[in-house]
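Narrative of activities, Objective 1.

The group set out to show that a structural description can be obtained from nothing but a protein's sequence at a throughput compatible with the screening campaign. Below is one input-output pair from the validation batch, recorded exactly as produced.
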Amino acid sequence: MKKITLIIAFAGITLQALSQGLEVGLNGSLGTTWLLNKNVFDQDEILNPTFSGGFTFGASATYFFSPKLGVGIELNSATVNQKYSGEYSANDTYEAKTTLKYLSIPVLLKLQTESGFYFEIGPQFNSLSKAKEEYTSDPSDPDDYSSLNVKKGFENMVIAGVFGFGGRFDLNDNLALTAGVRFQYGIGDVTKEYSQTELLDLVTTGEGIYGEAGLTDAFAHTTQGGKYKYEKTTLATGSVQMGLVYKIGSK
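Output recorded for this entry:
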């Protein structure tokens, strides 16, 4: 009985110690998203990437070892969009959009000053849950589509580097508001690389104009002259970040 009491007491002391400096909260962001690919940017009038936006929302937990240094982890739902426009001729144009849904987990080293300024940096792990594409031509065509599944053209995991900075504003002793900017740049490839034969099979199957590969991955394999050559696709985002955090213990 004495051993059980000691174990419970030790566990309680440990949890109390860990809670000192622990923060939990909710966060969200809105900003620009890009799928960067050399082949895509070299296509001239037939394919033009245009300004695109996306958003994230989720929960966070941060443990501060001191008033200035901490480590945080977030569990976010992230939407990455890449819009395109193009023309096959003066009277034959189109607009398209690739939408990727990720479960994003950043693990961030956080530095902050007494005045409230903060800086954060670390890796982010993006696990793909959905990949959709929509395509609208002008004049309209019966083959236009929306919400086409193109997940076969994308990698299931993308690792990225993240950094951000901003300020935090205490609302009371336990509640604080954070506001800043955050940037993400992918280390791994977003699209999947296929052999010329495999790509042909994907492009010629499915309901999309570029089949199951989708527009983004199809052009990642295609040079301006229409030849087969794969180029890596890089994820890049920049967003305004907002958060509401609750301080469980004093740091």
